[in-house]
Structure formats: C-alpha cells, structure tokens
Amino acid sequence: MKMKWALLTILFTIATVLTGCDNPLMVLDPKGPVAATQANVIMISIWTMAFVVLVVVVLYVLMILKYRASKQSDDYEPPHIEGSKVLEIIWVAIPILIVAFLSVVTVKTTNEVEATPKGYEKQEPLVIYASSSNWKWHFSYPEEDIETVNYLFLPTDRPIEFKLYSFGPIASFWIPQLGGQKYAMSDMVTTLHLAADVPGEYMGRNSNFSGSGFAQQTFNVNVLPTKEYDKWVDEIKATAKPITEDKFNELLEPGHVGQSTFTGTHLKFSPAPEGENSGHHHGTSDTEKTDSEESSKDSHEGHSEHSNH
Amino acid sequence: MDYFDRFAVPHPSPAIYASMIAIGLTMIAVVAGITYFKKWGYLWREWLTTVDHKRIGIMYILSALLMLFRGGADALMMRAQTAVPDNGLLDGQHYNEIFTTHGVVMILFMAMPFIIGLMNIVTPLQVGARDVAFPRLNAVSFWLFFMGAMLFNISFVVGGSPDAGWTSYFPLAGNEFAESVGSNYYAIAIQIAGIGTLLTGINFIVTILKMRAPGMSLMKMPMFTWSILITNFIIVFAFPVLTVALALMTMDRLFGTQFFAMANGGSDMLWANLFWVWGHPEVYIVILPAFGIYSEIISTFARRNLYGYNSMVISMVAISTLSFVVWAHHFYTMGHGAMVNGIFSITTMAIAVPTGVKIFNWLFTLWKGKIVFTVPMLYSLAFIPIFTLGGVTGVMLAMASADYQYHNTMFLVAHFHYVLIPGTVFAVLAGFTYWWPKMFGFMLSEKIGKWSFWFITISFNVTFFPMFITGLDGQARRMYTYSESTGYGPLNMLSFVGAIGLAIGFALILYNIYWSTRYASRNISNDPWDARSLEWATHTPIPEYNFAVVPTVDSTEAFWDSKKKGFKLFSGKIEKIHMPNNSGVPFILSCIFFVWGFAMVFSMWIIAIIATIGIFACMTLRSFEKDHGRYISVEEIEETENKLRGAK
Amino acid sequence: MKIDSSLPLEYSTEENRLKIFGFWIFLGAEIALFATLFATYFVLVEGTGNGPSGEELFKVPTLMLQTIFLLTSSFTIGLGINAMRLGKQKAMLSFFVITLILGLGFLGVEIYEFVEYVHEGATIQTSAFLSSLFTLLGTHGAHVTLGLFWGTFIILQTKKRGFTPETTNKAFIFSLYWHFLDVVWIFIFSFVYLKGMM
C-alpha cells in the first residue's frame, strides 16, 4: 500500500528531523532548564505517540491487505460480528494507561515550569518587567534601574522572573530556546520563570497575533556570563540617557522602532497593572481562575489609567 | 460624499477592485441568464420557497462548495505570500484579513453547512420519516445561514473584511484596534447564520427523537443518525454561548458597552473564555457527523456490519460531554497557573480514549470484511491514519507544559488541519460522493474521483506536514512574512507546492461534477453501492414524500436484512400523505435579516429599525396564518410509484 | 390531520406533540443563553470602574413590585391553561388577559427602574458591571415584551377561532414560555438583586 510507505516515510522524517544534530529545531535545542524540561516532555510525548501510531498503522495495513475484495472469492459473504467485550476493554484500558502516564508527566512538569527552575532556588531571581506595545517590547530592570527596547541582556546561572503585561492587544512573550511562552495582557501581570545556562544570542518574539505589524515584533536575547552582564549594566548606566514620560509615550505610538536603551524605568510614572494598579486582583501566575471565581477580585477603584488604552 | 466613504474598502488593492468587477459581472450574468431562460418562476416555486428537506440539503451543499472555493482562494494566497521570505505579494493588512476570513469561512460557512446539508438529505430518510419535524423552520435555518454567509462575504468589497483573526480576541477586535467595520461584519454575519444553526439543532433533535420509523429504537438507529443526534445536542447547548458572546461584542463595538474594554472593569479574558466555551464544542459539531459518515461508508464497503455499535455510541456521548469541559486548553498561556492547566490537560487528553475506541472499531469493521475501494471508501480509509496523526499531536498539545512551546505556532496550525481536513473535509467529500446518486440519479465518475482523491491526500500531507517542523523551529502562526535568516523558506515553499496540489484536487472535483452530469449513465438502481440503511430503500429520484409506505424496522440494518434475509420492510397499505406547503416567508424573512445586518454593520439605525419591524411583521404573519398543509391522494402516490418503478 | 381525542386538545395531533417537544428543546437553548448571561454577570459584577455598584443602585420597593407582578402572572396563566383544559373559553381568555396586564405592569416597573438608574448616572456604558446588568435584565425584559405581543396574538386567535388543536397548542406553548421567564426572574431576584444588596 502506498499509504503504508507514506506513513513510514513520515515517521522516519520526524525521527530524523527531530533528532538530527546538524540543524536542530529551536524548541528542541534548549539553552536553559525550562526549555530543557519542555523539550524532554515533547520527546516523551512524541515517542509515546509514535507507539500509538505504529499500533494503528500495523493493524490498518494488516486489515487492508488481508481483507480486500480482490483477495477473496466472489461468493464470500462477510460475517455479522457484534463486537467483543474483551477487545473493547483492551482498547479502552491501554489508552487510559497512556493518558494517565502522560497526565502525570504533564502535571509534574507544568508545576516545574511554573516555578523557579530546579537548582536555582537559592538565588534571588532577577525581576524584569517585559511589556508589549504595538509592535515592540519594553524591558524594565528595576533592580539595575535601566530600561531597554527590543533587546534583552540576561545573565547566566541566575533565575529570571519576567513580569509580563501589555499596552494594547494581548501579546505572547516567547524565547523558544529558553522556555515556553506566556500572555502579556493589559489588565494584569503574568509571571514567566526562565533561566539561561548557555551564553549566546537567541530569538525572542511576540507569538500572539496583534495587528498589522505583528510579524516583526521580535527582540534579541543576549545571554552573558554574570561578570560580562554586570559590565554591560555599568556601561549602560554610564552612557544611556534617562527615560522620560514624554519619550516613553512617544515610544508607545504604534509602529516599529529599533533598539534603544535608557536609565531609569517607565514603571515610576506608568506602573504595571499589578496590586493596586490591577484591573483584576489576580495578577500572578499561580492564581486560579475559572468563570465563577473571576468575581473574586476586590480592588478596582485604584485602577490604573495608564494601563488601559 | 462623506456618507458613502464608509462603504469604501479601507485598504484597497487591484485584487479587490478586480473582485468587485468580477462579482458585479457575475451577478448581472446570473440575473440576465435567469431572465433569458425564463427561470424566475421555477426558481421561486421549486427552490426559494421550498420546505423539502432534500432540496434544502442540496442548497446547503451548493453554498458550502461555493464557500469552499472562496476559503480555498484565501488559503492559496496565504501560502503564496509565505512561500518565500520577505515576500511582497500581500501586505500585512491584507494577509490579516485573508487568514481571518479563511478561518471563519471554512469553519462556519463551509464545514458546518456541508455537514448540515448532508444531514438534511440523509437523516429523515435514514429514520424513515417524510420530512423533518418543522419543515418551514428548516427553510428559515437555511436562508438565515445563507444570508449570514453572503453578508460576511460582501465585507470583502464593501467596507473591508474583518482582520482580527477568526478568534477575534479582545482588545484587538475592539474599536480601538479594529477601526474598520470588518469586525462588525464578523459579529453580525456570524450571529445571523448562528441563529439558523441553532434552529437546525432543535429541528433535528425533534425529528430524530420523535419521527423514527416504527421499530427503530434508539439503539437501532444508523450510526450517522446517532452522530447527528449528538451533534445537534451540542449545537443547542453551545450556540447560545456564541449568540451571547457575539451580542456582547456587537454592543461593545456599536453601543459603547464595557464588557471587554479594560478601562471600566471589563475583561478581555471573558471573550476568550466565552469564545472557546462555544469554540471547542464547535470542533466536535463538525467532527462527530464526519465520524457518522465514515461509519456508514466503512461498513458499506467492507460489506460488514459496524463493529462495536454500542461502544461507538457510548464513545460519541463521551466525546460530546468532554467537549464542554476542555475549553481552557486554547489558552494555557493566559497564566491561570499549574493547577487549572493540569486539570484541563487531563480532561483534554481523556478525549483521546473514546476517540481511540472509534478508530479501533473502524479497523475491526474491516476485519473479515470484503473491502471495495470506491472513492468514498478511499477517503474513509485515508482518514484513519491521517486523523490518527492529528489526534496524537492533539494529545501532545494537550500537555500544558509542552503547549507553552507549541502555542501560537505553525505546529498548532498543522495539528488542527490534520484533524479538520481528514476529519471533516474528507468526510464531506466522501459523503457527497456516496450520497450523490441518491440526490441526483447518477454516479460521479470513479476514475476522476480517484485522481482528485490522490491529489488531495498527497498534497494535503505535503502542505501541512512541514508546518509541524517549522512550528518546532519557532515559526509563529499568522505572520505575514519572515526574514531569510530564520530558515523557514524551503519548508514554506513546500507547503505552497502542496497547496497548489490541493487546488488541483478540488478543481478536479468540479470537473468530475461537470463530466458526470454530461456523460454519466442515468440508468442506475435505487441502491447502487449495495448499502445497508434506509435511505437506499426508496426510489431514485426520491419522491417528495420519501416513502410511499412508512418502513418497519427491527434491527440496525433493516434494509440489509430485507435484501439478504427477506425481511419485510414495507408492510403497510398506501394511505394519503400529509405534506407541508411551500412558503416564501423564510426567504423574505432572511432577506430582511440581511438588510438588518447590513444596516447594523454600518450603524444605519433608521434602516435597522425598519428591518427589525419587518422581521417581527413576518413572525406576526406566521402567527395568524392558517396553513394546514396539503394531502397527496392515494391515486397520485400510486401513479408516482408506478412511474418510478417503471423507470428502472 | 389525525386527532387523538384521548389526549388534551393541545397534544391531540402529531404536529402539536412535535411542537411542544421542540419548544422544550428550545427552552434548553434558552437556559444555555441565560446561563451564559449570568456567568458574564458574575465575572463582571466587581468591575464597577468609576460607576456605582449594585448595592448603591438596587431598591427594594421596585424589586418587590416586579417580583409580585411576575410571580402572580405565572399563577394566573396556570389557571388559564386549567380553564382551557376544562373547555371554558371565557375563563381562559380572562386569565390570559390578567396575565398580560401583570406582565405589562412588570415591564412598566422595569422601565421605570432603568430610567432611575440612568438618572443616577448608571448607564449601560458606564462600567462593565452595568453593561452586564443591563444586558441580563434587558434580555429578560425583551423576552417579556415579546411575550406580551405573542400572548395578545393568541388571545385574538382564540377569540376568533375558539379552541382548536392549533390555538390550544399555541396557548399551551406560550404558558411554558411564560413560566420559563418566571423561573429566570427567580434567579435574577436571588443572584442579582439579593446577592447585590447583601
């Protein structure tokens, strides 16, 4: 059957492409613990699913080859078969086991990636506010008191906590080689935990469609050893100009701007929508939200005007 | 002059002007043609006012085919634009409009009406009924869908298409970021079509539950009818959510309410939740009937009864129930934390279990069978492995931690096309070919059909498989272009090549219809596939009353039994038959809805108010009308029956 | 049309039975619709922005008046259907007229209430909370308004044509609709007003 060969080819293509070392796919080429966890989960799921596909394909090919009309006598009359309890229990039970296994993996790893990466718990995380506006990223480093636009410098071997929000449509902050994405929204702050192990330059982008300039809403990520990172911070402090409210508002205008650097952060005059300034009072990543629980927010009068355009 | 500016397209291009001219010329040609051949009366009497489920079904399918080519043209343009890096064929704005309309058209105006069309034609016949429970309501359903689809489509040339994605997330779809009337079209056109769908849901639940032939208990219904019953329950409980969501969107955009606006306590996440509380069940609304179609076709051409009937039914009920509790997996990345994501991961993966049961049951229906490779069977057989790939990637996406990496990427795009194309598109093509002889009295060419099958199946994989890879390589979806350094170029080019192959495959289907209409033999039996369910027990062409005598049933395959075991299907005497009268009200009512929708899109309040009054006037008219239908006399039935029998 | 005389007139034909069953399914869809509106309201109830909250707006007298009107009307339409079953056309018509007058009373109070809100600066555009409140109440109110027209048509038809399978069927279905609106009101009463005032 052509189908069989097509499928086998597909399977082999997946296997070779995913495991190929020359030009590995970004998501499967992690440079930090979070992305590594995720790449592991992906590979576990691919192999588990490859087994499922294999079982289906083998059965399928057998059935099609063996029971085609051309292989049977003209007067063969297929029997009436109701079904079989045993068989049906088997193909309910085995998928349940597979799903149970994957559920355990999912719950465990989801908890992992939603917390400070393993091995980094002892260090104080570096907090960076990443805010999106049409179609740029603003990165505020409150600890260092500097701000960059459309590029990030990160130290290795230190946990990083991104605080995400948006001046406009929902955006999604994503650095594939460091870890999965999370939404940046205008009425709350979400938290993304990442860390980088390997120095280098990585691609970061908004992956959530946000209008006509969305395709170019990318940023560069430079991961440096701690010493060089500190040097970079000092350099910025010595050379960059302070950010002003006017300058910042100018930056917020829709469009594309290149990279720029400032001392100070916009958080002083335009605070992030968290705590007092939140549209909702559940701006952290570990707050549970369902339809009915949504109403549990209790601070609304201190609503920030800046965060809502 | 300023007044008319609003009707102009905000981002015109030569393609749009060309389409305007093409649409104008086509309309003139159609009107002139109908007038020249004096077909206005025929059109009005036989089609526009019909309440016959078979004709309504055919009109649904024709509209769906039309929309298939519209959505397909969008898809081709998208693949052409992304075929090479930094391509300038389309600008960002046009690309955004095209993927938005592609999504809406394919899901709501192609897949749904195609399914509903087949359901209209087949379900009443399969349960041995003379029509649906509420024939006139059925006409209202169709015309509302049709007018909704037309309203959505004119956005392309009048006022501008929606451009916020088929999901239209807020605040992107709010007035601030979507200034053109495009998103108004989205909210109002889908609303009109959605009301029609909701009415269909009610109509078919009643038809299936209350109008089955004597002896056909629920567990003796054909599997397609089962799938339709469950689908319509999903429609009835999911579509009101969409109705509300779209109404809130309309009010936010037109009347300044604050539902999704963040400034005064609104919530953008509320839209995402409402949308997907409808949106995920919607996926099953288009997939479950497909499962039904495959069950019929696989059992027919394996020449065997369906394996595991009971578990097939139970699994569909399980899928439909689970479909309402998985919606949050569409936005794991919204930051609801590990706990909520974990729960939704598990419910989502749980769907794999009943779906797996179905796959194995189909495989075991082939077991000890005698497989005949007709075109409908080819689609059904191709469905099994391809859909399995779609399904397993679905399980992968369900795993929240990994989904943070798949979300918003081409991997996701590949996944849902691997589910929806073999799941729904192959199914409607299979069903369309399978039931075609019952609808039109001749068969489609198997030879051309097989050509288009191979074109579509192979090209489908060529188009969408590369997207799994580019997705894992970090290509986000909905990007109108990318730079060469990303390295996405070659695989995107491959997708474009595949898209051309798909276009050829679909064009071959049109050619097949043309060729078969001209040359295919009209001399076919009532049961050309040697099938198993009741729709094949009546004449071809089907008389308007479907069955002269209502069949009596005592198994899941009574028609098969009547052929093989001498079971007596028709044992009653011919009696006069009560039939509903045709009515122009559904068509007129829907035309007024169209005017209302158009006026709402452009905030023309006076016209909107007049149209609203018109809508209520139609309903009032209906309330006071005395219409008891008509009777077909015994003599007339006998005459028709003799003529149809003689024709064979 | 076959008439089965062993059943009440509104159930007597096949078509009538289908219509009643179909209407129950329709009410299922209506439940989904109102459930969504309630969910929206619960999500946005704290989203008062710069506008007033429910506690500041809701008033007991109008609420009680509305509730009494609507609950009583549900009772009187029940009496109307009972009279219909007994074949008493005059009694049935009177009860239906009373029902509609009560419905009109309800609607009048609701409109008065809305006007009051607007005078206090609480419009549908003020805040997300008010948008959802007006939409929920407004959808219910629109259903009542539609019911007033529908009920009037049924009264006119019954008066002209007497009790036939068609008219009784319509009247019966209308009574289902009216009871449904009453049930929705009980939910609004408890979860919007009482919860908001506490």
Number of domains of chain B: 1
Q: Would you identify the CATH H-level superfamily of chain B?
A: Cytochrome c oxidase-like, subunit I domain
Query: What's the CATH H-level homologous superfamily of the largest domain in chain A?
Result: Cupredoxins -  blue copper proteins
Number of helices of chain A: 5
- Reading the helices and strands of chain A in chain order gives HHHEEEEEEEEEEHEHE
**What best-fitting shape of chain A do the alpha-carbon axes yield?**
elongated
Average residue pLDDT of chain B: 94
Named at the architecture level, the CATH assignment of the largest domain in chain A is Sandwich
- Overall number of strands of chain A: 12
Coarse structural class of chain B: mainly alpha
The count of helical stretches of chain B stands at: 21
Residue-averaged pLDDT of chain A: 85
Strand line-up across the major sheet of chain A: 8-5-1-2-3-12-11
Q: Describe the strand arrangement of the main beta sheet of chain B, using strand numbers.
A: 1-2
By oligomeric state, this entry counts as heterotrimer
Describe the structure.
The complex is a heterotrimer of chains A (309), B (648) and C (198). In chain A, helix 5 links the parallel strand 11 (241-242) and strand 12. Chain A starts with a helix and ends in a 46-residue tail after the last strand. In chain A, helix 2 runs antiparallel to helix 3 (85-113). Chain A contains 5 helices and 12 strands. Chain A is an alpha+beta fold and 309 residues long. Chain A is elongated. By secondary structure, chain B is mainly alpha-helical. Chain B has helices spanning 2-5, 14-36, 40-48, 53-82, 92-126, 135-154, 182-210, 223-254, 268-301, 309-322, 337-350, 352-366, 375-398, 400-406, 410-440, 446-472, 489-519, 558-564, 585-601, 605-624, 634-646; strands at residues 577-579, 630-632. In chain B, helix 4 packs antiparallel against helix 17. Chain B is globular. By secondary structure, chain C is mainly α. Chain C contains 6 helices and no strands. The longest helix of chain C has 34 residues, at 128-161. Chains A and B meet through helix 1, helix 2, helix 3, strand 7 and strand 9 of A and helix 5, helix 9, helix 10, helix 11 and helix 12 of B.
